[in-house]
């Protein structure tokens, strides 16, 4: 195969019916909407799975996942196609807004309970929840005796295992962390750097698929769900937002990625004035 025009050539891809079955499985199980113009991703990201499984080609891989759409091979394909791009304090604006605006509001409104729960959804290899933990440690003097919990979730167990190590290479650490933050919140490790005990203890990791709803998750004051919805179709974006709303406190905040919005979707959220990429429950705004 030499390019996208050959995407469905007999020598490289399964018959249309197998491809459609694979796309449907991927969409229903992960929300990933890989249309025909993304077929190059199927070839590049699934090639290692084909080799690891000892299969002849993608035809056999698609046939295997069609025969067992909830099996081990199908799960490997989902994890191979999921995007795990992440780095510390990615797009600084949301973190600045938490520190300068949202945290102030939450401290004022939670003075009686002195508890703060944050959810980092689709946390990948952990840089986002650990960034939040560092930020909260830096602001700890504003809430010295508070109970702070950061729940970080992802649908991929291998990437969660990676996040739980709290260990990162020089490249990963220098991608987003200033030397000051690095020296304050990380310790040298034979594998590079490891998150220090205090911020690490704030974060708990668990496996969770955004399409599975909020059962057992509890409620949160702040939810980060960034750079995830861009991979969903409109129907699943709206469904996901409705599920997230069930887990957000009435006066809580949802932070999406810079390219994501709730505008045009049938969702219970509305933009928070003056805060980029931040949304609150519309019902609260009307109350």
Short key terms for the protein model shown above:
10 strands, Chemotaxis Receptor Methyltransferase Cher, domain 1, 287 residues, 12 helices, Rossmann fold, disordered N terminus, alpha/beta, seven-stranded mixed β-sheet, three-stranded antiparallel β-sheet
Compose a concise summary of this entry.
It contains 12 helices and 10 strands.
Would you give an account of this structure?
The chain is an alpha/beta fold. It folds into two domains: 4-81, Chemotaxis receptor methyltransferase CheR, N-terminal domain (Chemotaxis Receptor Methyltransferase Cher, domain 1, Orthogonal Bundle); 92-286, Rossmann fold. It has twelve helices and ten strands. The chain has helices spanning 16-30, 39-52, 58-67, 72-81, 92-109, 127-138, 157-165, 170-174, 179-185, 197-202, 234-246, 282-286; strands spanning 115-120, 147-154, 167-168, 186-189, 192-195, 203-207, 220-225, 248-256, 269-271, 278-281. The chain has a seven-stranded mixed beta sheet with strand order 6-2-1-7-8-10-9, sandwiched between helices. A three-stranded antiparallel beta sheet has the order 3-5-4. The longest helix has 18 residues, at 92-109. The protein starts with 15 loop residues before the first helix and ends with a helix. The model is unreliable at 1-11 (pLDDT under 50).
Strand coverage percent: 15-25%
Spell the H/E element sequence: HHHHHEHEHEHHEEHEEHEEEH
Helix content: 40-55%
- Shape by Cα distribution: globular
**Count of helical regions:** 12
- Average pLDDT for all residues: 86
CATH top level class name of the largest domain:
Alpha Beta
CATH superfamily of the largest domain: Vaccinia Virus protein VP39
Which structural class fits the helix and strand makeup?
Answer: alpha/beta
């Amino acid at each position: 195969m030499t390019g996208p025009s050959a995407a469905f050539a007999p020598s490289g891809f399964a018959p249309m019916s197998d491809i459609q079955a694979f796309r449907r499985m991927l969409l229903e199980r992960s929300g990933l909407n890989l249309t025909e113009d993304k077929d190059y991703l199927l070839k590049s990201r699934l090639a290692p799975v084909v080799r690891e499984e000892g299969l002849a080609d993608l035809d056999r891989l698609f046939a295997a996942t069609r025969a067992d759409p909830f099996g081990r091979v199908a799960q490997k394909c989902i994890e191979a196609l999921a995007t795990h791009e992440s780095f510390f304090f990615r797009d600084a604006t949301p973190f600045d807004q938490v520190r300068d605006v949202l945290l102030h509001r939450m401290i004022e409104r939670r003075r009686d309970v002195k508890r703060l729960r944050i959810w980092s959804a689709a946390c990948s290899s952990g840089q986002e929840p650990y960034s939040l933990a560092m930020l909260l440690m830096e602001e700890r003097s504003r809430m010295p005796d508070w109970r702070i919990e950061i729940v970080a979730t992802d649908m991929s167990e291998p990437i969660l295992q990676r996040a739980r190590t709290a260990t990162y290479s020089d490249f990963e650490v220098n991608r987003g962390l200033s030397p000051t933050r690095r020296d304050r919140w990380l310790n040298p490790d034979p594998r590079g750097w490891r998150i220090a005990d205090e911020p690490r203890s704030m974060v708990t990791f668990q496996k969770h698929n955004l399409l599975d709803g909020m059962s057992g998750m509890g409620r949160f004051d702040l939810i980060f769900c960034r750079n995830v919805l861009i991979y969903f179709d409109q129907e699943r974006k709206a469904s996901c937002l409705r599920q997230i709303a069930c887990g957000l406190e009435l006066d809580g905040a949802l932070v999406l990625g810079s390219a994501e919005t709730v505008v045009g979707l049938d969702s219970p959220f509305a933009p928070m004035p003056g805060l980029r990429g931040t949304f609150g429950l519309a019902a609260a705004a009307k109350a």
